[in-house]
Amino acid sequence: MNSILDLKFVKYFIDTCHQSWLKGWNERNGGNMSYRMKPEEAAECEKFFSYDNPEKPIGLSVPNLSGECFMVTGSGKYYKNILREPENNICIVKLDEKGENYRIVWGLKEGGVPTSELPTHLLNHSIKKELTNGEYRVIMHAHPANIVALTFLLPLEDKVFTREIWEMITECPIVFPEGIGVLPWMVCGSADIAYATGEKIKKYDAVIWSHHGIFCAGPDFDTAFGLMDTIEKSAEILIKTMSCGGKKRCITSEQIMALSEPYHVNIDKTMLE
């Protein structure tokens, strides 16, 4: 291996960022992504790490992530440039033994810092790591247009969004049977949005940030990307349906619950009450 860029997880990270940009979800420098590296991946990368950069405070404590490495997008970096110049637009950060500080050990060659949402990412990685016994490793935040549009049209309630989105595509209750969380507008990059998202992420894998975007978690790149893609497609269908005079029919609650047994998913029926 001649470069960190030769590693499979790095190629997946870069490709996922590029596909997200092609979808139109990450305009300009909008959105961010992080990946919690496996120990063996961090060990492979170690020979390329530099410890010249100073440690900086995360702004919160995540002790169950102490010593771990994360690949993250850079603050102010344009998604369209990640494929062409990854070393200038993404980085790897390593946390200290207490999970309170981080250091850039690779990437951002021309200067910069990790995404301003790093505290939100790390807090939610911490929660998902604990809840999934370490299975979840990817967090994506983006600005899909139809999801954002719905936050100006629907009541900002978990049940309302979940039901409306479930009713648009049969696959939705199969892909996210627990539903979707929704937050009111909050200042991005703040401790408030980090902790509020953390409370929602305990139940959901997807949390909508009103008038802003969506925050998705998953065990791997394909699952997290696929979750966001499925929700956005359903939101698009709902927007088109609303613009054509509204629904004349929908997938019923009984039909939604009928998907549980054949697809071996535990659909939260309280979302339909």
Molecular structure report:
With 273 residues, this protein is an alpha+beta fold. Helix content is 37%, strand content 16%. The chain is built from eleven helices and nine strands. A nine-stranded mixed sheet has the order 2-5-4-3-1-6-9-8-7, with helices on both faces. The longest helix has 23 residues, at 221-243.
Number of H/I helices: 11
CATH architecture of the largest domain: 3-Layer(aba) Sandwich
Largest sheet: 9 strands, mixed
Distance N to C terminus:
55 Å
Helix content: 25-40%
CATH superfamily of the largest domain: Class II aldolase/adducin N-terminal domain
Globally, the shape reads elongated
**How do the strands line up in the largest sheet?**
2-5-4-3-1-6-9-8-7
Number of domains: 2
Question: What structural class should be given to the helix and strand makeup?
Answer: alpha+beta
Report the CATH C-level class of the largest domain.
Answer: Alpha Beta
Total count of strands: 9
Into which percentage range does the β-strand content fall?
A: 15-25%
CATH topology of the largest domain: L-fuculose-1-phosphate Aldolase
Q: Give the low-confidence spans.
A: none
Short description:
Helices cover 37% and strands 16% of the residues. It is an alpha+beta fold.
Map the helices and strands:
Elements: H1 8-22, E1 32-36, H2 39-45, E2 56-57, E3 69-73, H3 86-89, E4 90-95, E5 101-107, H4 118-131, E6 138-142, H5 145-150, H6 158-166, H7 172-175, E7 181-183, H8 191-201, E8 206-209, E9 213-218, H9 221-243, H10 253-257, H11 260-263
Parallel strand pairs: 7-8
Antiparallel strand pairs: 1-3, 1-6, 2-5, 3-4, 4-5, 6-9, 8-9
Helix pairs in contact: 4-8
